[in-house]
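User:
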Amino acid sequence: MSNPITSADIQLIQRIIPHRYPFLLVDKVIDIDGTTSATGIKNVTMNEPHFQGHFPGTPIMPGVTIIEAMAQTSAVMVGATMGLMDKNMLIYFMGIDGCKFRRKVVPGDVLTMKVETTRGKPGGKVWKFKGVATVDGELAAEAEFTAMMDMQS
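Assistant: Predicted structure:
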């Protein structure tokens, strides 16, 4: 039996989830503990296209992209643990609950996203997660979200 995957660099992330620039919103995933929990890292840079319009002169990462980054972290955690590399997995939001934003996320920040599975099991399609995003230890956003993981043929 091979060793469990406990981290994913950008190359492995791209083998698990279909997202690409400009919508690939996680740079690496660390501390993967099976399908239980993981931590995503997103280096926020001024080069990202949403900063041209959100907001000119005062760039702020859109809240919806922070939630999406947490969801991508969750998908990488599940995909890495279940060996879903190169399997054309698509992931669809089914619900977002208890979403709160507490701090602006701006270029230069490192967004740390801790996610944990609250419902779901290997082989299942519907999963529920709780995510917390921080910058320098300060709470930036939190949400619970439900997603369906769909394997394409």
